[in-house]
């Protein structure tokens, strides 16, 4: 650039040689200004779009990512005392999955008991998405990473999968975690998201490792017992019509509950019973129905005997009055299990369908995060605003 120095103009050679006659000095100053970039990663594309809209106040541009599935949203902003360009994108669930190394995938050559101690490795969860390559590409030149994964243990685990994918291409200090931040939120509302952005923390490595441990247990136990019982039953029953008899630490006990309930229904035998009800009219003309203290009787002769005892009675006398006070508690928030139960019993929907709808409502900001074990509302959840906001959708 050109500028003035004490009212004179000139070039650099004139400044270096003051003996040259001139009355004007031109100063050339060259500098390079590089914008800082902040990469943000959400758990799914729809969530990334909602977050970008809130954080940019609707002023962002969007482009399709190189993997053809994820979208990248960009806008200008301010972070860590600097003007920056934010890049919001997403993964599609887990980036990596756990599996045995190749030679242990041969059922005929590997004893199932070996699966409890053999080597495992991380593989891409969805190779067609090329998620690690996509994340590394978008992270190139970025100086900060903000993780907007779901706030549960699985989300914490995905945080570190993302970190592993991008740390090779980011501009990073000696310790990568110095520029990695974690956003904590429970609902997709403007207040909640902007508050999370102002109170960034760090991802929880212990929770992430607990998911790694659970994945390894599921893999080893599930594969070992699946192979064992499949080969055992195929050898024992030649006409077995199943090529695979799977086993899972959660799947198998759940299947047991379902089978037991099915057997109870199939073997149920209805049994007749009788009840007594007496209709009375008070001296003031008010009518009432009295229920039998015994409630029901499975023997008809006994019920008829009691019926004959009261048939001829013309007057009844109140012998005691008991007054009880009942308190109706405020409704509790639904945890994941209760949400699926209510959706099934009240709406006739399957658990998978219930969670699909709940996830959609969550990303649109109507409800808080549905995959939870607690029945408490988040402290930041506005119980008054939510019904008011959603009243046009309630019938």
Summarize the topology.
Elements: E1 2-3, H1 12-16, E2 27-28, E3 36-42, H2 45-55, E4 61-64, E5 71-79, E6 82-90, E7 96-100, E8 120-124, H3 131-139, E9 144-148, H4 153-166, E10 180-182, H5 190-198, H6 205-236, H7 251-267, E11 277-281, E12 287-291, H8 300-311, H9 336-347, H10 351-363, H11 385-390
Parallel strand pairs: 3-6, 3-9, 9-10
Antiparallel strand pairs: 1-2, 4-5, 5-6, 7-8, 11-12
Descriptive tags:
395 residues; alpha/beta; 6-stranded mixed sheet; 12 strands; Topo_IA
Give a structural overview.
With 395 residues, the protein is of the alpha/beta class. It folds into 4 domains: 1-31, no CATH class; 36-207, Rossmann fold, CATH 3.40.50; 262-313, no CATH class; 336-383, Topoisomerase I, domain 4, CATH 1.10.290. It contains 11 helices and 12 strands. It has helices at residues 12-16, 45-55, 131-139, 153-166, 190-198, 205-236, 251-267, 300-311, 336-347, 351-363, 385-390; strands spanning 2-3, 27-28, 36-42, 61-64, 71-79, 82-90, 96-100, 120-124, 144-148, 180-182, 277-281, 287-291. The two termini are 66 Å apart. 18% of the residues are buried.
